[in-house]
Amino acid sequence: MRSSNPVFSRRGFSRDNGYAGFNAQPQAGGAAVGTQGNPYAQPQGGNPYAQPTDGNQYGQNPYAQNPYAQQDLQYGAPPQAPVTTGRMTMDDVVMRTGTTLGVLIVTAAVAWAALPVDDANISRSYGIAVGAGLIGMVLALVQSFKRKASPALIVSYAAFEGVFLGVVSSVVDNRIASGAAMQAVIGTLAVFAAVLVAYKAGWIRVNRRFYGFVMAAALGFVLLMAVNLLFAVFGGGDGLGFRSGGLGIVFGIIGVLLGACFLALDFKQVEDGIAYGAPKEEAWLAAFGLTLTLVWIYMEFLRLISILNSD
Q: Rounded to an integer, what distance in angstroms lies between the CA atom of residue 289 and that of residue 97?
């Protein structure tokens, strides 16, 4: 079941296969990968590149359409494999992710500089940040429910989310803990690098059981935070205390660990998308998921730092 929360919408590279081929590895040298494991596999017997064999002039000789193919065979040169275009590559994912993160960082820096958080301007800056955060959330939800990736939506989400993060980071850095934003950035990069190394080394095994555990834990986490927020809004104070004091530290660490688990899911989806020949535009979905996860981890680090430095 797909969650309405974009952070939890870890959909794979097929709308009908939410696990992106978990537990279904492509077989090296095999004739084909099963369509259940590979959402991009052609239907059995359907090869759009197959040569006709119905007795026409090219039916018995696959090289008849290329006069140079016979020469290649004659002089011992191996025939050239057809070039597959329009498929997602790692370079595509890196470039799209760099684009979204670049837009987010630039807008965050502009918001930090243009929206001061001193006593005279903090209310206005807070209002703009909250508005930008809500718009970013709506854009993320719209993209999560769309059948295909929309680069405009994803980049717009990154821009508005950057404004929100810029103001929040400025508040924490200038009013609670100096240097908090840089510490949160370093922590986020450290988690990203650690999960990437652990995933590539095979220490993290992403399968259906892992997916189910992470989704259940994340849903419970968000529900608890929502209840805590409601108590804080209507009851005042820190609500149930899940975001302050000792409990706040515990739940902050849990939030970072959940973010690390989401990174592993993101890496698995990218790996499966490349292995199964996902369309090139799916790289935007990979970038969208990675950006959401990195924002999640950054916010948890920022919250942890603010709790540890508050009196």
A: 9
Query: For residue 245, what are the contacts with CB-CB under 8 A and spacing of at least 6?
Result: 238, 307
| Residues ≥6 apart with Cβ < 8 Å to 231 | 239, 240
Q: Nearest-5° angle of CA 160, CA 165, CA 170?
A: 135
- CB-based contact 142:153 (threshold 8 Å): yes
Given a contact cutoff of 8 angstroms between Cβ atoms, the answer to whether 190 and 1 are in contact is no
Q: For residue 53, give both structure tokens.
A: 């064999």
* Helix runs in the chain, H state only: 67-74, 90-114, 122-145, 151-175, 180-200, 208-235, 245-275, 282-309
Residue 258 burial by Cβ neighbours in a 10 Å radius (0-12, 13-18, 19+): buried
CA distance 139 to 160: 9
In angstroms, the CA 259 to CA 250 distance is 14
Identity of the residue numbered 22: F
Q: What is the dihedral of CA 221, 223, 225, 229, to 10 degrees?
A: 180
Which amino acid is present at 299?
M
Assign 234 a pLDDT band (cuts: 50, 70, 90).
confident
Residues in the chain: 311
Residue 197's CB is within 10 A of a number of other CB atoms, namely: 11
pLDDT digits (tens, 9 = 90+) for 162-193: 999 999 999 999 999 899 999 999 999 999 99
At position 28, the amino acid (one-letter code) is A
Q: What is the pLDDT of residues 237-273, one digit of tens each?
A: 677 777 778 888 999 999 999 999 999 999 999 999 9
Q: Are 123 and 167 contacting, i.e. CB atoms less than 8 angstroms apart?
A: no
Amino acid at 209: R
